[in-house]
Specification:
The chain has 322 residues and is of the alpha/beta class. The protein has 13 helices and 14 strands. The strands form three sheets. The chain has a six-stranded parallel β-sheet, with helices on both faces. Strands 9-8-12-13-7-14 form a six-stranded parallel β-sheet, sandwiched between helices.
């Protein structure tokens, strides 16, 4: 039997080592390359055209789902098996929607990994035993288009009106909202929501309204002063999953109203603001979310900011300035 050439992509060296040990059960399975981030996985897949790619989801630089989409274009004959710690059904559906043939939950790897590889190499689909009974194919048409809008506000009244209307519409429809605001805006926004007939205390208690502080949230997303894409993906994924489960609608959506990017911009961290915007767009490819991002007009300085402003515009489906 000819050898099967394999690429392993996982940012944790210990996991790559464990996968290598599992592959030793079959001498014809040859691991020819490893990758520690999504961009490296794409580069090696294009270069080597491996027969099989074992791919994590929470990869640095580019998450595994987007990496898989690009790999499918660059190396269409490569079969993809996801090996991930994430078992949220929306994530699994998005992963399988890339054209991957297998999905193994890392906790199930001791019993499921080798059967998954054998099934995929035979042209069969495989999902972990803990995910059996769910349908993960033909989901691309199920997901509704998302809104990702930017609000450039001239004063707090414009900011509060924009956020309150966005949040109230979601909660009144039985959906959920994740709100990331500065301490200076929090109390005023809660009062504004109450004026929109939102039962704020009840929504917070039920988990359909999640309120977070911008500074505290950004601190969890940074490593050595730089925004970490893996922390963004995993942190927001967890919040979205929690909010979605609390929502009352039959097919819930989650709105995210966020001051984080505007705060980064105001601090001169424009690259981090754009990177966070891009991370939100990656999340919107997986989850049923709509986003509203607030930027203070006072932070912009004319022509010198024009190029960055255009980059911010490019990440949004709509832009409002008042």
């Amino acid at each position: 039997m000819s050898s099967i050439r394999i690429l392993i992509a996982d940012d944790y060296k210990d996991w790559r080592r464990q996968v290598l040990l599992l592959f030793q059960a079959q001498p014809e399975w040859q691991v020819t390359a490893e990758a520690a981030d999504g961009l490296e996985a794409i580069q090696k897949a294009e270069e080597l055209k491996p027969d099989l790619i074992v791919l994590d989801i929470g990869l640095p630089k580019l998450n595994g789902i987007e990496a898989a989409r690009q790999i499918r274009q660059l190396s269409p004959s490569s079969r993809i098996v996801f090996l991930s710690q994430n078992k949220d059904l929306d994530v699994v559906r998005a992963a399988m929607g890339t054209g991957a043939q297998g999905y193994v939950y890392k906790t199930d790897a001791p019993s499921d990994f080798l059967p998954a590889i054998e099934a995929v190499l035979r042209g069969k689909q495989f999902v972990s035993s803990s995910l059996k009974g769910y349908e993960f194919t033909d989901t691309s048409t199920e997901k509704s288009p998302h809104r990702h809008e930017a609000l450039f506000y001239s004063d707090d009244t414009v900011f509060l009106d924009g956020f309150a209307l966005f949040i109230a519409a979601a909660l009144n429809a039985g959906n959920a909202a994740i709100v990331l605001v500065t301490k200076s805006h929090r109390d005023s926004l809660l009062q504004r929501l109450k004026a929109e007939s939102v039962h704020v205390d009840g929504a917070i208690q039920q988990g359909t309204l999640i309120l977070l502080d911008v500074a505290d949230t950004l601190a969890t997303l940074m490593v050595d002063g730089l925004l970490d894409p893996v922390r963004v993906f995993e942190g927001f994924s967890g919040l979205i999953q929690t909010a979605s489960k609390a929502a009352k609608a039959e097919h819930p959506r989650v709105v995210i109203c966020c001051e984080c990017k505007g705060s980064l911009w105001a601090e001169g961290k424009t690259d981090a603001a754009i990177l966070l915007e891009q991370g939100c767009n990656e999340l919107a490819k997986i989850y049923e979310v709509d986003l509203l991002c607030a930027y203070p007009l006072s932070a912009f300085h004319g022509d010198e900011d024009e190029l960055v402003l255009q980059s911010i515009y490019a990440e949004h489906s709509g832009v409002h300035s008042q």
